[in-house]
Amino acid sequence: MKTIFGAVLAAAVILAVPAGASLAADVTVGGLTISNPWARASTGGSRPGVAYLTIANKGGADSLTGAGSPVAGRVELHRIVHDGDRARMGRIGKIRLPKGKSVEFKPGGLHIMLLGLKRRLKEGETFPLTLYFAEAGRVDVTVRIMGAGAMGDHKGHGP
Ligand SMILES: [Cu+2]
Question: What is the Å distance from ligand 1's center to 128 Cα?
Fold first, then answer.
């Protein structure tokens, strides 16, 4: 019994290493590689959170159709639309991922909006985000929380 327990414990320790090490690592599923998922620390109140990442597609054409996370009531895919001098955000149902291309979510462009935050996003912590692809299916990534002012601003992006 002791031996079995020891073996189980050893397996758990071995499993824990890659899980911890993969926090900042890229996630590759088929031809898709999701890299550098990050979010801004939340400033409190009812302001939504925002997350960014890059998706490189070396396989067949696919599209990102949605996302979800236990830290938010609802997760939406958004883009910034320039309307004359004004920039406003718009929700997109799906984002096409052409074969051989990279799609970058970044401040001032495509972003993942975390509405109805259930907990504060604290700098230095991480949270899980699930991406839903038309072809690749469901892919889980770990988002690293950066400073509240990291790389630009997200003003005007209310729910
Ligand atoms: Cu937005």
Answer: 19
